[in-house]
Amino acid sequence: MKHLLCILGFLLFGTALHGAAIIVYARGESAMVDAIAAPDKPADPAKAAFLATFQADLMHPAAWAEPIKLTDFPVYGRDVPGAGGMIQFHESFPGGVVLKVALMGLLPGHKYILTLNGNPERAGNDRLVDPVPGNEAEKYFDFQTVTTDAMGQFMATFAIALPKGPYDVRFYVKDTDDFKIVLYHDFFRFEVE
Fold first, then answer.
1. Does residue 10 register a pLDDT over 60?
2. Is the pLDDT assigned to residue 105 strictly greater than 70?
3. Which of 174, 115, 151, 144 is nearest to 29 (CA)?
4. What is the pTM (predicted TM-score) of this model?
5. d(CA 29, CA 41)
6. Which stretch of DSSP H or E encloses residue 59?
7. pLDDT tens across 45-69, in order?
């Protein structure tokens, strides 16, 4: 049942912009975006161009890859009964990746960290920000901390600035209390133009 509700919510999410639209320039540097009224234009030309491209995509989105279901992470994570979610993304985008996130069944009003996690054997690992403690060859990028609503849900569209090239990464949702992974999807591929 939880996954049917999640899929229904995600299908509705896919038909129009629901939830927030957030541009992430770097860790700790993000802004809410509206398709028409932008946040203050960044002074940096690359950031300003990325913002303009994202705004244009919000008005007339490029093709989306098929939705990907998020599940619990059996080996290293923590099971949250009733939790589920989906992501959807553009397979190619200038300056970064555009990613829709829909989460359901999590703790209400609780903070979670959204992460792109690489692998030294896969594309894009070397272009992520931080080494995994104890496994420095593997890199990750905690791109945003989000807060669920009163029903334990969260929906947003993100534009995440990343260096140019191919990526094959995991998606994690980590609890801020213990940094355990509560939802994830194993590797998915996209290209940053």
1. no
2. yes
3. 144
4. 0.90
5. 13
6. helix 45-59
7. 999 999 999 999 999 999 999 999 9
User: Which pair of structure tokens corresponds to residue 5?
Assistant: 């509700």
Tokens 């990746």 label which residue?
97
Closest to 192 measured CA to CA, from 157, 156, 168? 168
The answer on pLDDT for 181 being more than 50 is yes
Angular region, 152: left φ>0, alpha ψ -120 to 50, beta rest? left
User: 54 φ, ψ to 5°?
Assistant: -65, -45
Residue 38, φ and ψ in degrees, nearest 5 = -90, 160
CA atoms within 13 A on the CB side of 171: 22
Query: Minimal CA–CA distance to 23: which of 162, 174, 116, 117?
Result: 162
Q: Could you state, in order of their start, the residue ranges of all structural domains in the chain?
A: 2-192
CATH of 2-192, one of 2.60.40, 1.25.10, 3.30.200, 2.30.29: 2.60.40
DSSP track, 75-139: TTS---TT-EEEEEE-SEETTEEEEEEEEESS-TT-EEEEEEE--TTSTTGGGSSEEETTEEEEE
Q: How many CA atoms lie within 13 A of 21 on its CB side?
A: 20
